[in-house]
Design goal:
- The protein contains 5 helices and 2 strands; from the N terminus they run ααααββα.
- The chain is globular, with a radius of gyration of 14 Å.
- Helix 1 (9-22) runs parallel beside helix 3 and helix 2 packs across helix 3 (48-63).
- The two termini are 22 Å apart.
- It has one domain (9-123).
- Strands 1-2 form a two-stranded antiparallel sheet.
- With 124 residues, it is mainly α.
- The chain binds zinc ion (2 copies).
- The site of one zinc ion has 7 residues, from helix 2, strand 1 and helix 5.
Length: 124
């Protein structure tokens, strides 16, 4: 456990952290987005190529309207998990995963708590 470089290695992780700091992103949400983007159950299962592609995508997305879109979705969903109603650890999930050409359109996004989000990914 943990000794493979699948997460992307130190460089990619640094780049990711840098992006999060630079754009003041929510690390938790970025992680959940990465999982949707790569279509894996956890980020650790993603290949280096997937993480690389995600970092590039995130950089692009962060420049645009990540925060605005995220808030828009959370707001529309009443700041509650759409499965269990929790108001804690909210994340934004792509109904059609990014890895399956799902878009960043708000119609494709839904608010879930981290537990429900994880459960959902585990079941697919
Ligand atoms: Zn939930
Ligand atoms: Zn998801």
């Amino acid at each position: 456990m943990g000794k493979n470089g699948n997460y992307g290695g130190p460089k990619l992780r640094d780049r990711l952290c840098q992006l999060i700091r630079q754009h003041q992103l929510d690390a938790n949400l970025v992680k959940s987005y990465a999982v949707d983007f790569c279509g894996t159950k956890t980020l650790r299962e993603a290949t280096r190529e997937q993480v690389e592609a995600f970092v590039i995508h995130l950089a692009d997305w962060a420049e645009k309207d990540y925060e605005k879109l995220r808030k828009q979705v959370l707001c529309r969903d009443g700041w509650r998990c759409q499965v269990c109603g929790s108001r804690q650890n909210l994340q934004v999930h792509h109904k059609q995963l990014r890895s399956q050409q799902g878009s960043d359109d708000d119609l494709n996004l839904i608010t879930l708590c981290s537990a429900c989000h994880e459960g959902l990914h585990r079941s697919c």
